[in-house]
Structures are given as C-alpha cells and as structure tokens.
C-alpha cells in the first residue's frame, strides 16, 4: 500500500503557544482523510504546514516518501482549496481551470486536452464557456476542485470548502465530493469542524483537540466506539451522567450516578470502586416504553419536557424524575409514540453495551 502523505512527530509553536503538538499520521493513496475538530484546535495550522505555507517547528512531512521540509508551496505536489474559492470572475470556466497549466508553461494543445478531460471527470462538459457568476455554488465548487485536479497533485488539501454554502447545498455537496473523490482517485485531506461532513465523506477521520489527535479511526468506529471523553462528546450527540464506580471488571461496570439511578455499562478498562466517571449514551440507544420481558436493560423514568420535531431526526427532550439534567431521546420513525405529549411520564431502557464511561474529565490531566 503506497503512502501518499506521512506526518511524523510534527509540532508547531508560536512563541509560547503550541498550536500542533507532536502529531503523527499516514494517509494511503486514494483515501479520503478528514481532520475534525473545533475552532482553534490546530487543524488549519497543520494543513498549512502540509501545503508549505508554514514550516513546522519540529518533525517531518513526506509526500510519497520525499521530505517536504524546506520545499516551497509551488514546488510541492499538493494543491489547496480554501472556503473562499478565489475563482477569477473575469475568466470563464475553462480559463479558470487552465490558469495553473498556463503558468506552468504547458502548450495550448496540452492545456485544451487536459481541460476537456477534467471537465468530463467533474461532470461539467459544456460549461467551459460559462462565466463564474453564471454558476451555482455547487458548480463553482467543482470548478475550484477541477482547477486543482488538472495539475495532477498527489494530495488535494481542502480547508472547510463547504463552509460558505447554505445548508441544503452543503448537504448535496457532501455526497458530490465523496462521489467525485472516488471517481478521480486523488488523495483528499479535508479539514472541517462539521462532524457530519467528516462522517459522511471520509474513509478515516482524525479527531483533533488542543493541538493533538484524540483518535484516528473509521467514521463508524469513532461513533460507536469513542476512545476518549472528548471524542464521545464531539462526534455525534450524547447524553451524559456523572457518577462513581460501584464495581467493575475489565469490560463492564456498575455506575452510581449523582442523580440516583444505578446503570450497568461498558468501560474501556477496569476501574477501582469509588472512581469518579462520566457516562455517555447516544439518543438512539434509549428505548421508549421497552417491553417488560427485556429484563437485562437499564431502566429509569423521565418526564417529557418537549417534542423536537425534525422529520426522521425527531427527538424527545426529557429529564429524569427528581432531576433537571436534559436528555435527548430519539423518536422512531414508525410513529408508534405519536401519543406522547409534554409532561408525560415514560419509562426508558437501554442495553449496557450501548453506553460507555471514562474517568472524570477533570481527572484526565
């Protein structure tokens, strides 16, 4: 398996501030790799170092085995797409795409052939003569990508390219970008703070927090098996309880929550009795009015505060009896619970394999 991008022990310091702290990862040929994290976590700084716009303080960056340290941006086999696409409004689509080829000194015949080929690959045949302002936001996005892909980079870097689009177009472009990347086969390294973008499009995702990687994994594993409290909170919605371990073995524990209920849940490792923990549970893991025959479920009662209608993503907002903690509970699409109203008291159940708990966040440092 060929490795297109290798980042090893990369650190970037700005005086006393460490923006990126000893980060390492590899991206194989043809993969869609996303770096996901909140604003200020260091992901854009990392991308700028890969692009050559910033030099690392420590560590190495290699593209297909060749060190990029000291190599200027225009000599690296990468291209970078920002949120603001920077298309030239005075040029038509074909001229925008051909811009880099002309600067490189390619012949007119070669340029025409490459522009025609790339327009076909991004499904924009017949758009070459159109002006940029005649295109939709999604079409402009494809032109920006085509302008980079026509230069045949080893790695295409994308820094929150969908951030300026409206919500509906963003949803469409997530699917379009994934299909386009699979079609052209170029390695994509994609920066985003939007977990949905990362989960939908990526082969692997690195979750970044305060300059370090918390977990690198497939989208499915990040969602179903988070390895740290930050990943559990940041990737997808989660309900959270604080509590103490009553008893534990290597894979499961009983947790006495501060609000009263005792829950059985999985744990990443054995924890001592009395250890303070945080327990996380997905909204869709909670069963509403579960069958009484399911005797191995954790069960507790809640009061419905509100019904949050959002089509297939509709949920209940509720709180446990004698507690004010807000819980999100997914509503099945079967409409079997349409009878539920505000202020109703209902029973909730969940399987111990659906939750996970970690040592209390304050004790992580």
Termini distance? 37 Å
Look at the structure and name the CATH superfamily of the largest domain: P-loop containing nucleotide triphosphate hydrolases
Query: Approximately how much beta-strand content do the residues carry?
Result: 25-35%
Strand line-up across the major sheet: 6-7-8-3-9-10
Count of DSSP-assigned helices: 8
Gyration radius over CA: 25 Å
Number of domains: 2
CATH topology of the largest domain: Rossmann fold
Q: What's the CATH class label of the largest domain?
A: Alpha Beta
Shape: globular
Report the structural category.
alpha+beta
Give an overview in words.
23% of the residues lie in helices and 34% in strands. With 365 residues, the protein is α+β, with helices and mostly antiparallel strands. The chain has two domains: 3-232, P-loop containing nucleotide triphosphate hydrolases (Rossmann fold); 239-363, Beta Barrel (OB fold (Dihydrolipoamide Acetyltransferase, E2P)). The strands form four sheets. Strands 6-7-8-3-9-10 form a six-stranded mixed β-sheet, with helices on both faces. Strands 13-12-11-14-20 form a five-stranded antiparallel β-sheet. Strand 9 (204-209) and strand 10 form a beta hairpin. It starts with a strand and ends in a 6-residue tail after the last strand. The relative contact order is 0.11. The model has no long low-confidence stretch (mean pLDDT 91).
What's the topology here?
Elements (H helix, E strand, L loop, with lengths): L2 E12 L2 E12 L3 E5 L6 H9 L6 E6 L2 E2 L10 E4 L11 H12 L3 H14 L15 H13 L5 E5 L7 H18 L2 E6 L2 H7 L2 E6 L2 E6 L1 H6 L4 H6 L4 E10 L3 E6 L4 E5 L9 E6 L5 E2 L9 E11 L6 E6 L6 E4 L14 E6 L5 E4 L6
Parallel strand pairs: 3-8, 3-9, 6-7, 7-8
Antiparallel strand pairs: 1-2, 1-4, 4-5, 9-10, 11-12, 11-14, 12-13, 14-20, 15-19, 16-17, 16-19, 17-18
Helix pairs in contact: 2-3, 2-4
């Amino acid at each position: 398996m060929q490795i297109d991008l290798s980042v090893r022990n990369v650190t970037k310091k700005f005086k006393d501030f460490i923006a990126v702290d000893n980060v390492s990862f590899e991206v194989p040929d043809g993969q869609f790799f996303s770096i996901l994290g909140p604003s200020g976590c260091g992901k854009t700084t990392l991308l700028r170092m890969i692009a050559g716009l910033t030099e690392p303080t420590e560590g190495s960056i290699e593209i297909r085995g060749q060190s990029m340290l000291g190599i200027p941006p225009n000599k690296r086999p990468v291209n970078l797409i920002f949120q603001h696409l920077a298309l030239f409004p005075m040029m038509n689509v074909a001229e925008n795409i051909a811009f880099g080829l002309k600067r490189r000194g390619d012949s007119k015949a070669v340029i025409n052939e490459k522009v025609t080929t790339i327009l076909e690959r991004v499904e924009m045949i017949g758009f070459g003569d159109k002006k940029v302002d005649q295109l939709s936001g999604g079409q402009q996005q494809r032109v920006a990508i085509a302008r980079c892909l026509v230069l045949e980079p080893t790695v295409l870097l994308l820094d929150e390219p969908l951030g300026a689009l409206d919500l509906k177009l963003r949803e469409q472009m997530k699917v379009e970008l994934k299909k386009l990347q699979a079609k052209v086969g170029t390695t994509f390294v994609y920066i985003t703070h939007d977990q949905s973008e990362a989960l939908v499009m990526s082969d692997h995702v690195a979750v970044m927090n305060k300059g370090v990687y918390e977990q690198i994994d497939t989208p499915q594993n990040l969602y179903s098996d988070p390895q740290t409290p930050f990943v559990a909170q940041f990737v997808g919605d989660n309900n959270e309880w604080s509590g103490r371990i009553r008893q534990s073995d290597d894979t499961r524990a009983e947790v006495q929550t501060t609000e009263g209920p005792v829950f059985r849940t999985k744990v990443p490792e054995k924890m001592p009795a009395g250890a303070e923990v945080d327990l996380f549970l997905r909204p869709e893991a909670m069963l509403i009015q579960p069958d009484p025959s399911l005797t191995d479920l954790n069960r507790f009662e809640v009061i419905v505060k509100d019904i949050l209608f959002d089509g297939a993503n509709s949920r209940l907002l509720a709180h446990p009896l004698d507690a004010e903690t807000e819980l999100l509970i997914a509503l099945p699409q079967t409409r079997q619970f349409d009878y539920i109203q505000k202020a109703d008291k209902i029973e909730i159940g969940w399987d111990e394999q659906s939750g996970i708990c970690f040592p209390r966040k304050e004790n992580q440092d």
